[in-house]
Write a structure and sequence with these properties.
alpha+beta
């Protein structure tokens, strides 16, 4: 009886260790995404292509138009949290896009994913980032 109880406890512990880093919403969040808009700024005119990538290991990285950013993320249901975010610090021609992307990633709260599109929303439900899944 004791060994059955121990096996059950181990099985329950292992089943609960999956965490919530990668709870998938229709199509999944992991992978690379082009950032098409940040706040109300079109990113097409940025110095470098803007993008964000979410790894299966809970790490994220991307380009805000001039600088690269990186950090960790967790996803619980539709609640998206970024932590330990860092960024390179260069000046460039498209700092307006850079500021919009930076502000958006610092204030996003939830995400809605549907196949090749994702929308990161703020606390008030306003869309902060418009994302398109990268296929290259």
């Amino acid at each position: 009886m004791r060994s059955k109880t121990l096996c059950l406890a181990v099985a329950l512990t292992l089943a609960s260790c999956g965490g919530t880093k990668n709870v998938f919403i229709d199509g999944g969040l992991t992978g690379s995404w082009a950032i098409e808009r940040a706040l109300d700024t079109d990113t097409a005119g940025s110095e470098e292509q803007t993008w964000i990538s979410f790894g299966e290991d809970g790490r994220m990285n991307g380009c805000a138009g001039v600088n690269l950013f990186f950090g960790e993320y967790s996803l619980e249901g539709s609640q998206l949290s970024l932590s330990n975010v860092g960024m390179t610090r260069r000046l460039g021609a498209s700092m307006d896009v850079e500021r919009a992307v930076t502000e958006a990633i610092n204030t996003l709260r939830t995400v809605s994913v549907s196949k090749d599109r994702a929308y990161c929303l703020g606390e008030e439900g306003d869309t902060l980032l418009w994302l398109r899944r990268k296929t290259d």
